[in-house]
Specification:
Layout (H helix, E strand, L loop, with lengths): L3 H8 L3 H16 L1 H12 L4 H29 L1 H18 L5 H13 L4 H12 L5 H30 L1 H22 L6 H7 L7 H4 L2 H30 L6 H20 L7 H12 L9 H7 L1 H21 L5 H30 L1 H25 L11
Protein name: MFS transporter
InterPro entries: MFS, MFS_dom, MFS_trans_sf
Subcellular location: Cell membrane
């Protein structure tokens, strides 16, 4: 495999530091949900419903705040948004261990609304520091970093709660988020390139109705379908292994699934041309649907996960690349925020849908139902995607 595309991307000044900060900064964020869940269950001695409600409230807040934060970044720059959200996270994580349940719910809602927009910011900055022809490889590297953070963060959250107690675990996760915000304040990566700033200076603001058209809406719907099927797959894997009395292999199976995604992202970043995010997502759904037919134990399931796993990171990377091509740089922060919101909506919808199918018909049917549903949504969206305009450019300066 030709590594030249990666060498060219990593040779761009600032890219290595940005990707490394992005990887490390996302780990405490990905640990948030699991750490809070374990705190409610073990520290507060409450039930799963109450623990799930805390996570759901934070998720809703994050979905609402992402495009709002992105719009502020487009208008005011990165540092004011990072400073405000970092202070908000410091206040929440310092007080969370001492709060009663109702106060924790209210604080969690505020924390979600003022969450650090790390995922969208890193992608926005990657698009700013790389020329257009190298962004696909940069986004592939970023998708692999996201995969690594999800492999480390939730497990680290569980380990901290069991090792040092939920109170200290919350404090350490909070410290990690504050450190992530501080690192971004010091680094202060550009959110637009110098050329993009020059082109947009003096130009009127691009109305939302111009760039948020059928193409972008279709892409955001596909992104939701992507995380819907990924989250449903994770839940179904847990249920299948539990039903087969192989729960002890859950970590290995999910870890291999993530590893396949890393391999797929690495291969995709080195390809000579981009692939359609709709085709990649549809393929992932098609390979996920028949997983319920796999018999013979967890080993065969690991092998059956390879095709779908290889498409995870490429589908995510291609969606970010396509979004940067179809939106002008002056609104890239808001566009990336909407992308994060779409990811969050897919994850939030998967839980109750997959859970209902698992409870009613078994985990095997959950693979089929969620994979087919997401694939149908993507196939319905394809004609709209092809007819939509390819890009919206910045208007000429007045």
């Amino acid at each position: 495999m030709d590594l030249t595309p990666y060498k060219r991307v990593l040779a761009v000044p600032g890219v290595r530091t940005l990707l490394l900060v992005g990887l490390l900064a996302r780990i405490p964020v990905t640990a948030t949900g699991m750490t809070l869940t374990m705190h409610v269950l073990h520290g507060m001695k409450l039930n799963f419903t109450q623990a799930g409600l805390v996570g759901a409230i934070i998720t809703v807040g994050m979905a609402i705040s992402a495009p709002v934060a992105g719009r502020f970044i487009d208008k005011k720059g990165l540092r004011p948004v990072i400073a405000i959200t970092t202070v908000a996270q410091l206040a929440f994580w310092l007080t969370a261990p001492t709060l009663p349940y109702l106060a924790l719910l209210v604080s969690a809602a505020l924390s979600g609304l003022l969450t650090l927009p790390l995922f969208s910011v890193i992608r926005q900055c990657v698009a700013a520091v790389l020329p257009a022809e190298r962004r696909r490889t940069g986004f592939a590297l970023d998708s692999m970093a996201v995969e690594l953070s999800y492999m480390i963060g939730p497990a680290a959250g569980v380990g901290l709660v069991l090792g040092v107690g939920s109170g200290w675990a919350l404090a350490l996760v909070g410290f990690g988020q504050v450190a992530a915000g501080a690192a971004l304040l010091v680094l202060n990566p550009p959110t637009r390139s110098a050329q993009e700033d020059a082109e947009s200076e003096g130009a009127p603001v691009v109305p939302r109705r111009r760039w948020l058209g059928m193409g972008v809406i279709t892409l955001l719907g596909t992104v939701s379908a992507l995380t819907f099927v990924l989250t449903a797959t994770e839940l179904s894997l847990v249920a299948v292994l539990k039903e087969g009395h192989a729960t002890e292999w859950t970590g290995l199976v999910i870890g291999l699934w993530c590893f396949y995604s890393l391999v797929g992202g690495f291969v995709y970043g080195g390809l000579p041309r981009a692939l359609s995010p709709l085709l990649l997502t549809a393929g992932l759904c098609a390979f996920t649907a028949p997983l319920g037919l796999v018999t013979g134990g967890w080993g065969w399931l690991c092998l059956a996960l390879i095709p779908a796993g290889l498409l995870c990171a490429p589908a995510l990377a291609s969606s970010v690349d396509a979004l940067t091509q179809r939106t002008p740089p002056s609104v890239r922060g808001e566009a990336m925020g909407l992308h994060s919101t779409a990811l969050t909506i897919g994850m939030a919808a998967a839980g109750p849908v997959a859970g209902a199918v698992i409870d009613g018909y078994g985990p095997g049917w959950a693979f089929l139902a969620t994979g087919v549903l997401a694939a149908v949504l993507v196939l319905v969206a394809m004609p709209f995607w092809r007819r939509a305009p390819q890009a919206v450019k910045e208007p000429a300066p007045a």
